[in-house]
């Protein structure tokens, strides 16, 4: 079975094993996920890894006041490998050992604003490509007279596969950047409209006060005698 990525409930942050019925991702070496982190909450995920593999994790805060979040990455032994305090994005790569790696997004410092967070996992050297290569090598015997050996074909296919995966990764990141920029622009638009209405209201009130004061200066306040 391929690598899995599971969400742990808030009350079980200290556990590395998934709870019964937890949601799981499809077995893919590249996974991305977007979720909403409520104010005052902390959410953790875990990823099983193999020895001498590579785990690359990139995250971005797409929406929410301040566009910041705390990020923790822990090893299977519970050691803190990465700690980002109130950052809007980050990219981290670690060489792994056998076990479950846990990473958490912490929004407990915010009491009002929820955050929309995007993250992507890229897993390398998980063993599946090596198995495919071994399967291909079964058919290499007797191909020495060919101009292009099956090893060359396999190398070309792997190169195309790597470039396609990189293209998909870049497009996913560009969509995340676009979503964050759009949220910032919409927030700025709402702020401009709000303060424009406030300024308009102040101008109307000031104009009314000025007209009233000017009229009062020219009123004849003397009372006629009878």
From TrEMBL:
The keyword Signal applies. Pfam families: EMP24_GP25L. It is a single-pass type I membrane protein. Residues 1-23 form the signal peptide. Its main location: endoplasmic reticulum. InterPro entries: Emp24-like, GOLD_dom, GOLD_dom_sf. Coiled coil: none annotated. The chain crosses the membrane at residues 194-214. It is found in: Endoplasmic reticulum membrane; Endoplasmic reticulum-Golgi intermediate compartment membrane; Golgi apparatus, cis-Golgi network membrane; Membrane. The keyword Membrane applies. Keywords: Endoplasmic reticulum, Membrane, Signal, Transmembrane, Transmembrane helix. Belongs to the EMP24/GP25L family. This is TMED5 protein. It comes from Chaetorhynchus papuensis (pygmy drongo). The lineage of its organism: Eukaryota, Metazoa, Chordata, Craniata, Vertebrata. The gene is Tmed5.
């Amino acid at each position: 079975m391929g690598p899995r990525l599971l969400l742990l409930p808030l009350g079980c942050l200290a556990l590395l094993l998934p709870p019964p019925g937890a949601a799981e991702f499809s077995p893919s070496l590249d996974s991305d996920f977007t979720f909403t982190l409520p104010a005052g909450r902390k959410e953790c995920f875990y990823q099983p890894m193999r020895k001498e593999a590579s785990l690359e994790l990139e995250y971005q805060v797409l929406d929410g006041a301040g566009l910041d979040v705390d990020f923790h990455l822990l090893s299977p032994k519970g050691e803190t490998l990465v700690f980002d305090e109130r950052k809007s994005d980050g990219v981290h790569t670690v060489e792994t050992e056998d076990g479950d790696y846990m990473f958490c997004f912490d929004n407990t410092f915010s009491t009002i604003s929820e955050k929309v967070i995007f993250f992507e996992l890229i897993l390398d050297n998980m063993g599946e490509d090596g198995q495919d290569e071994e399967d291909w090598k079964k058919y290499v015997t007797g191909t020495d007279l060919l101009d292009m050996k099956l090893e060359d074909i396999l190398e070309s296919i792997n190169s195309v596969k790597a470039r396609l995966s990189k293209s998909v990764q870049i497009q996913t990141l560009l969509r995340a950047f676009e979503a964050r920029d759009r949220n910032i622009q919409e927030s700025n638009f709402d702020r401009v409209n709000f303060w424009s209405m406030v300024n308009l209201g102040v101008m109307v009130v000031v104009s009314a006060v000025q007209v009233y004061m000017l009229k009062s200066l020219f009123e004849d306040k003397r009372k006629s005698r009878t």
